[in-house]
């Protein structure tokens, strides 16, 4: 074959594969077997490897995600990515309709769509090819996640036909089908990883992974619902979306054109039930005025379009029976009552357990064994009990008494003043507390001993090989090899990761030892303030209170922790093991030059760190902190509740605005 013929063959294979992808993933009508598809893909892959001069980022071979990106760059949205006003009742929908009719002087046509529960994405196509995929970010600037988005099979890399505008943007929702979510979580639980709370978090988290190969395995999907650009074929939303389907996009089939608000309400009613049968999560209905002309007349408020609204369904509830209550003991000794329920289907999964939080909650609900209870699933994995149907209660039921003694070690429980929870005070002798502390100590944010997992800790504890965190450093290879779970390789791994933890910096060790109320941030502040564990050990309440964010409760807890001779002995043994128990001076020094020469303004509140820490971090990366936005400001780091004046000024002056997350990615 001549060079040109090879090029043609490559192009031909790409076209054929793209078209089969579309038939398989979007139309669900495959025409060839997986085997045949894989063969064609392999042929293309081989040719591309041999002839890199014909490389193309939009080749179907790129769907498996082959390149490792560093971090995401931030890109300004061409059209601001707005969100929608929410409503929860039919009356509010009627009010929306009345506002629209008043604004336009006539009844419009509405398009009703399902509201997909995932993460928003904006896809730009240039000359029929995917050019860029950007997340919402703060609506003005988003992350460029193109390499990850390329791995999503239902997103066309090259469009069909030739009647699309030369450049346009199409927006939609990337989501994780429920089945994929369940499978991933099962795997994560088996491997001792924290499961995702819900498919939405799983989709958003996946999209931000740095390795597209992993993204490709997560089987994300995407519905498109909004198209923007000049020279669109029609002057209304509905027809343009229908057209976009011909170009290869996955446009939902259930979009409906409605001629009156009553039809809209009927759509909402119908889908409240029908959506439960869908293999993905939806949380409402989006109602849009169809005509672009009418959309233009209605315009926008500061944050949302006046021509669209979201109706959100209430969280799903089911009724089931309370069979019994277990009392679980956490690492800090906190007791959590957990309800065992008669298994019931709720929002796509079977619910058997629900948290009852604490004694006050039990009293508030006046819940009794055998009661008929309403269970609701919010954003969390563990559903909650929101009510009791007392009409179903038998005469003989008795109130549920909170236990007086620890279910694990029988020590009488205490309920400290001002605390909602009961605690088992037997910190040194209560098995779940001991194991919990060791599991916390080895966790990723603490000593990151990833050669051991929760189950291994259980085993080592059961065999009497460890009684506290310092014992980990006395473990020998022969001891591990004798255990059923350990082969040569896993033993070496475990020993190696224990050894490696000895260089983990002091702030993380302090967090890892698990003083009650001392989280990651507080541990860091304490470590930097005092410098050594000895100084923290001997600090008075007053001295502790001098540390930013340390209040009475934390100070008291620290003093109590170090007043126990067992703790002092533990710290001595950790010292002997060679752990970092003082601040490494280099921690205070420069970390990188990534912000060299830049002046940054911070505004709002931040979730990961305090404002002071953020300023410190800016300095350590070479940046300069300035207090107000001007034309010489390089960047505004926007937290929650950002000052509107600062935001507006930054927008006006074209100053780059980054979110907290984006800032961390910038300096990572
Ligand atoms: S339209 C200006 N349509 O819900 C209109 N959004 O609360 C832009 N969403 O930001 C959005 N399904 O992330 C639209 N069928 C749908 C949707 C949808 C889910 C998300 C989207 C949006 C948010 C609004």
Write the layout of secondary structure elements.
Blueprint: H1 3-26, H2 34-50, E1 74-76, E2 86-87, H3 90-104, E3 110-116, E4 119-126, E5 129-135, E6 141-143, H4 146-149, E7 167-175, H5 178-190, H6 199-207, H7 212-217, E8 221-228, H8 237-247, E9 256-258, H9 261-274, E10 282-289, H10 292-298, E11 308-312, E12 317-329, E13 335-346, E14 349-355, H11 359-365, E15 372-376, E16 384-389, H12 431-442, H13 454-462, H14 477-481, H15 488-500, H16 506-512, H17 520-530, H18 533-537, H19 541-545, H20 552-562, H21 565-577, E17 599-603, H22 611-620, E18 624-625, E19 635-638, H23 644-653, E20 656-659, H24 660-667
Parallel strand pairs: 2-11, 17-18, 17-19, 19-20
Antiparallel strand pairs: 1-6, 3-9, 3-10, 4-5, 4-7, 7-8, 10-11, 12-13, 12-15, 13-14, 15-16
Helix pairs in contact: 1-2, 16-17
2-(butylsulfanyl)adenosine (IVH) binds at residues 82-84, 113, 115-116, 120, 173, 225-226, 286, 305, 308, 310.
């Amino acid at each position: 074959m001549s060079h040109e013929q090879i090029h043609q063959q490559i192009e031909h294979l790409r076209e054929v594969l793209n078209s089969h992808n579309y038939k398989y993933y979007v139309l669900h009508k495959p025409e060839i077997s997986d085997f045949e598809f894989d063969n064609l893909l392999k042929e293309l892959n081989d040719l591309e490897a041999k002839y890199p001069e014909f490389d193309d980022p939009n080749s179907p071979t790129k769907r498996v995600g082959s390149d490792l990106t560093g971090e995401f760059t931030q890109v300004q949205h061409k059209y601001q990515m707005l969100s929608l006003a929410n409503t929860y009742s039919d009356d509010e929908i009627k009010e929306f309709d009345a506002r629209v009719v008043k604004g336009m002087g006539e009844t419009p046509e509405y398009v009703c769509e399902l509201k997909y529960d995932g993460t928003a994405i904006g896809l730009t196509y240039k000359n029929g090819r995917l050019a860029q995929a950007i997340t919402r970010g703060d609506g003005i600037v988003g992350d460029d996640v193109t390499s990850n988005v390329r791995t999503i099979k239902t997103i066309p890399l090259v469009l069909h036909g030739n009647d699309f505008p030369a450049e346009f943007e199409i927006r939609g929702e990337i989501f994780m089908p429920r089945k994929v979510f369940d499978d991933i979580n099962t795997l994560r639980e088996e491997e001792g990883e924290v499961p995702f709370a819900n498919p939405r978090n799983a989709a958003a988290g996946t999209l931000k992974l740095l390795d597209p190969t992993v993204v490709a395995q997560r089987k994300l999907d995407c519905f498109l619902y909004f198209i923007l650009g000049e020279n669109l074929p029609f002057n209304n939303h509905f027809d343009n979306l229908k057209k976009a389907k011909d170009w290869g996009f996955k446009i939902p089939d259930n979009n409906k054109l409605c001629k009156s608000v009553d039809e809209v309400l009927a759509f909402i009613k119908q889908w409240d039930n029908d959506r439960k049968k869908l293999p993905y999560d939806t949380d409402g209905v989006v109602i849009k005025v169809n005509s672009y002309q009418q959309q233009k007349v209605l315009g926008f408020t500061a944050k949302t379009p006046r021509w669209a609204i979201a109706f959100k369904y209430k969280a799903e509830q089911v009724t089931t029976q309370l069979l019994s209550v277990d009392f679980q003991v956490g690492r800090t000794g906190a007791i959590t009552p957990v309800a065992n329920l008669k298994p019931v289907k709720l929002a796509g999964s079977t619910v058997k357990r629900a948290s009852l939080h604490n004694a006050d909650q039990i009293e508030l609900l006046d819940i009794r064994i055998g009661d008929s209870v309403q269970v609701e699933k919010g954003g969390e994995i563990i559903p909650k009990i929101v009510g009791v149907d007392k009409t179903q209660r038998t005469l003989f039921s008795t109130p549920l008494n909170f236990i007086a003694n620890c279910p694990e070690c029988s020590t009488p429980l205490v309920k400290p003043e001002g605390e909602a929870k009961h605690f088992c005070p037997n910190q040194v002798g209560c098995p779940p507390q001991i194991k919990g502390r060791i599991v916390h100590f080895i966790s990723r944010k603490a000593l990151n001993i990833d050669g051991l997992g929760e189950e291994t800790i259980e085993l080592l504890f059961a065999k009497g090989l460890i009684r506290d965190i310092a014992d980990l450093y006395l473990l020998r290879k022969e001891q591990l090899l004798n255990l059923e779970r350990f082969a040569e390789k896993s033993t070496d791994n475990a020993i190696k990761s224990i050894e490696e933890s000895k260089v983990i910096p002091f702030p993380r060790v302090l967090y890892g030892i698990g003083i009650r109320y001392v989280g990651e941030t507080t541990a860091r502040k304490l470590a930097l303030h005092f410098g050594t564990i000895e100084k923290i050990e001997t600090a008075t309440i007053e001295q502790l209170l001098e540390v930013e964010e340390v209040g009475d409760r934390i100070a008291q807890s620290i003093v109590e922790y170090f007043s126990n001779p067992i703790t002092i002995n533990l710290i001595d043994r950790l010292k002997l093991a060679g752990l970092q128990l003082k601040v490494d001076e280099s921690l205070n020094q420069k970390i990188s030059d990534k912000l060299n020469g830049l002046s940054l303004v911070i505004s709002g509140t931040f979730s990961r760190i305090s404002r002071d820490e953020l300023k410190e971090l800016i300095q350590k990366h070479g940046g300069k902190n300035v207090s107000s936005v001007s034309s010489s400001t390089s960047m505004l780091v926007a937290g929650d509740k950002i000052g509107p004046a600062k935001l507006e000024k930054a927008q006006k002056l074209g100053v780059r605005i980054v979110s907290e997350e984006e800032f961390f990615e910038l300096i990572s």
